[in-house]
Amino acid sequence: MDQFLAFTVVGLSTAAIYAVIGSGLVLTHTTAGVFNFAHGAAGMLAAFAYWQLAVGWGWPVPLALAAVLLVLAPAFGLFVERVLMRPVQALGEAERLVMTVALLTGCIALARWVWDPNTPRPLNPFFADRSAIRLGPTAVTWHQAVTMAVALAVAAGLWFLLHRTRSGTEMRACVDDRALAGLTGADPLRAGRLAWVLGIQLAAVGGILIAPTVALDAQQLSLLIVSAYTAAVFGRLRSLPLTFLGAVVVGLLEAYLAGYLPQNDYLPGLRLAAPALLLFLALLAFPHRRLRGRDRRLVPVPLPGRRGALLLAGAVLGLALVLVTVLSEEALVSYGAIFALGVVALSYVPLAGFAGQVSLCQLSIAGIGAVVWGHLGAHGELWALPVAVLVTAAVGALIAVPALRLSGIYLALGTSAFAVVLDRWIFTLPAFDVLGVRIALFDQGSVSVTGPDLFGLRLTTPAELLLLAAGCLALASLGVAALRRGRYGRRLIALRDSEAAYATLGGRLLGAKVAVFALSAGIAGLGGALYGMQLQTVTAEQFNLVAGLPIFLIAVIAGLGYVGAGLFAGVAFVLPTQLLGELGTWAQDLSALLIALAGMGLAHSPGGIIGRFRAEWAPLAQNRVLLGALGGALAVCWLLAALDTVNGWLLLAVALAAATALRIRAASGQQPSPEPPLEWWGVRRPWRPEDGEVLGRATAAG
């Protein structure tokens, strides 16, 4: 009984922290309409800032707390509201979600850049020098008592704010109807600013309170928010009392699992994954109507032409040939992941770009593909590659069945919870038997991965594996482009536009979602197997949730509706990482920070930058003379680099400069022609293949 009471006290103390963080999350979501994935990262930055002031610089604890909670946290909240979230307020739910994911990635990268993750930073609990408070047979530390008292004070303060003050009334009014609240004299912008400031302050309080009980690690502290996510979902992202109740459930569950879970090799990860697993179950258990979201603005999905798809495939193979002939074998190992990760990024296009289903677990699914190939293709058996694709497709279909109830941020929450369960539990399991079949994942270590035996030719060198990955990316890109042009692609677009209308017109939601999830997961599994071949040895950490966020962000920056997003993401992820890595260890996290900053610029190009690139370079593509000159210049640069007569980076700069100059020349010689009205398409300008779909959508909207 004494042990049970001790675990209960620990669970209630942890629950108090989750309640504080979760209440800030609910406050932000209900007032501003934004689910802040970076809420935990804000608390993490507050904990690091508090350590820097109180321990690193020796400030008095009260002064350090005041500086973090009353100055830094409100300033950060105002920055997020004014600079990041207000520009995307009029965009869709997916765009606002992407903005907070970019903020999460940027905060983690910034913390790792400023504070060396290899240096331990212990943080003492509050009043650690005082004796514990005795409550019968159990004891409560002063830190635990302070934590629970703060949670009660936060609950009372939020109730008073929302129900007894004008500002709280404005905030609740903006939740119900933002436009109507503005007509009655309320100020939605002021209410939003107040919500963001209070939300970030509550995240900071929770981060500072929980930091002494865990390692001061950027990724670990940021992902502790999963438990607060669970508490917020218990409150259906609206109710603060239910959020506090959910926090109690999560805190006690963690404490009791830590105390009473049997000790064996298979269950330790379950305790770590329990909040994410509970989050996934809570998302499925709550009423269906509560878990629906609707985009305010749908980004058009371009229709790729056959010529454009072939040019893209040729560009993939051409780039691979250039890299193989120009780079050394050591450099090929570093840059070889471009095409494998490009395949993983391409998996977002049919799922998120065409069908509008946001998934944050694609890299985790790619890890399954790498593991399946590593075990079954240990001796290069080619048949193991399609098996890896089929296994990951089955996993994707398994995710799709419960995902039928979810959309928008709830689907993103569910897939991120699935990724955390894989990271913390499934990938840590030792080998086990199921119906006499031996199942081995990472087996609590690493898995060796080799190249395939392709029709008697064993592919083992970095150059051979790079060409294999490039060929797979080219074929996959052609397949996705053909999918978009076909009837099934149009069905996916209709599914994205309106699930209700899709079902009303006879579409089968379950079948469509299962098929697109399976297809996307199969592509990701292929990319994971190819990525494992490049790395030769894979570990679970390489496929966790945080590692996959930058790839997702780059795919969004490129434009999820464009088939070229795969190649763009592979180049944009690998190239800056390798170039900045050459500057020293201090720049290792700089590339992730730059990716996050680019993601935060989403408001300026919600449809992706590939469309802008196509429009800017179209004049050059239409000018055969200048295009031929560009091809000749690139061929000369390639030849000089292959002969190693001139520095490769110098030739790259010359090639880019020549291409830019020719593009400007082509644009200056082309007179822009105004786009005629829609009803004159085919009369005042030639009819295009994609015009039929655009006309149909415009007619339906009218």
From TrEMBL:
<feature type="transmembrane region" description="Helical">
    <location>
        <begin position="97"/>
        <end position="115"/>
    </location>
</feature>
<feature type="transmembrane region" description="Helical">
    <location>
        <begin position="34"/>
        <end position="51"/>
    </location>
</feature>
<feature type="transmembrane region" description="Helical">
    <location>
        <begin position="358"/>
        <end position="376"/>
    </location>
</feature>
<dbReference type="InterPro" id="IPR052157">
    <property type="entry name" value="BCAA_transport_permease"/>
</dbReference>
<feature type="transmembrane region" description="Helical">
    <location>
        <begin position="63"/>
        <end position="85"/>
    </location>
</feature>
<feature type="transmembrane region" description="Helical">
    <location>
        <begin position="333"/>
        <end position="351"/>
    </location>
</feature>
<comment type="similarity">
    <text>Belongs to the binding-protein-dependent transport system permease family. LivHM subfamily.</text>
</comment>
<keyword id="KW-0813">Transport</keyword>
<feature type="transmembrane region" description="Helical">
    <location>
        <begin position="382"/>
        <end position="401"/>
    </location>
</feature>
<feature type="transmembrane region" description="Helical">
    <location>
        <begin position="551"/>
        <end position="575"/>
    </location>
</feature>
<protein>
    <submittedName>
        <fullName>ABC transporter permease</fullName>
    </submittedName>
</protein>
<feature type="transmembrane region" description="Helical">
    <location>
        <begin position="308"/>
        <end position="327"/>
    </location>
</feature>
<dbReference type="Pfam" id="PF02653">
    <property type="entry name" value="BPD_transp_2"/>
</dbReference>
<feature type="transmembrane region" description="Helical">
    <location>
        <begin position="408"/>
        <end position="427"/>
    </location>
</feature>
<feature type="transmembrane region" description="Helical">
    <location>
        <begin position="142"/>
        <end position="162"/>
    </location>
</feature>
<feature type="transmembrane region" description="Helical">
    <location>
        <begin position="194"/>
        <end position="212"/>
    </location>
</feature>
<feature type="transmembrane region" description="Helical">
    <location>
        <begin position="218"/>
        <end position="235"/>
    </location>
</feature>
<keyword id="KW-0472">Membrane</keyword>
<keyword id="KW-0812">Transmembrane</keyword>
<feature type="transmembrane region" description="Helical">
    <location>
        <begin position="267"/>
        <end position="287"/>
    </location>
</feature>
<feature type="transmembrane region" description="Helical">
    <location>
        <begin position="590"/>
        <end position="613"/>
    </location>
</feature>
<feature type="transmembrane region" description="Helical">
    <location>
        <begin position="465"/>
        <end position="483"/>
    </location>
</feature>
<keyword id="KW-1133">Transmembrane helix</keyword>
<feature type="transmembrane region" description="Helical">
    <location>
        <begin position="6"/>
        <end position="27"/>
    </location>
</feature>
<dbReference type="InterPro" id="IPR001851">
    <property type="entry name" value="ABC_transp_permease"/>
</dbReference>
<keyword id="KW-0029">Amino-acid transport</keyword>
<feature type="transmembrane region" description="Helical">
    <location>
        <begin position="242"/>
        <end position="261"/>
    </location>
</feature>
<dbReference type="InterPro" id="IPR043428">
    <property type="entry name" value="LivM-like"/>
</dbReference>
<keyword id="KW-1003">Cell membrane</keyword>
